[in-house]
TrEMBL record:
Domain Histidine kinase residues, every copy: 1-148
Protein name: histidine kinase
Recorded superkingdom: Bacteria
Localization, UniProt: Membrane
Protein's job: Member of the two-component regulatory system KdpD/KdpE involved in the regulation of the kdp operon. KdpD may function as a membrane-associated protein kinase that phosphorylates KdpE in response to environmental signals.
Species lineage: Bacteria, Bacillati, Bacillota, Negativicutes, Acetonemataceae
Amino acid sequence: DWCDIEDLIGTTIRRFGKKNTDHIIEVDVSPDLPLIQADFVLLEQVLLNLLDNAKKYSPTDSVITIAAKQEADSIVMSVQDQGAGIPNDELVRVFDKFFRVRQDRQIPGTGLGLSICKGIVEAHRGRIWAENRPDGGTDLYISLPTCKYAPIMEAEDEAK
Ligand code: ATP
Ligand code: MG
C-alpha cells in the first residue's frame, strides 16, 4: 500500500496523545515527502513502540521530538528523547529479543518492543538504529527506501 508519512505520524501522535499527558511532543516533518510502499498499521506499531520507550525512559515534562525527512533514496524518521541514553556498548543489543539495559530493570517491560520494531522495519527493507546525542538523550532512527516512481501528494492550494 502507498503510505503517507505525514498522515502516519499525525495518526500515531493522536493515538499516543490519548494516554500521554506528561511529555511535550514536538513534530518536525518535511513537507512534500514522497509516499512509500509500506504497511501503515505496522509502521504505526513501530512508532508507538518508540514513543512508548521515549516516554518510559525519559523524565516527565521533557520533550520528545518525532521527525521525518528525505535522504537520497530513503525517508528517515526519528524519535528523540531527553532521557539518560543507552550505554554505548549496548546500542546494538537493545534490538535483541528480551534484552533490557540493567539500570532499567525496575521499569516494567519485556524487552520485546525494539526487536519487534526491527523485524517490521527489516521486512520493509529498511534499517533501524539507535544513537546517543552528545547533549544527552537518545535518537532512534528508521530509514525506509523510497520508490523511484512513487506518487507525490500535491498540496491542495497548489492544485488550483
Ligand atoms: P517492552 O517490550 O515493553 O517494549 P522494553 O521497553 O524494556 O519492554 P524494548 O522496547 O525492546 O523493551 O527496549 C529494550 C531496552 O532498551 C529497554 O529495556 C531500555 O533499557 C532500552 N531503551 C529503549 N529505548 C530507550 C530510550 N529511548 N532511552 C533509553 N533506553 C532505552
Ligand atoms: Mg519498549
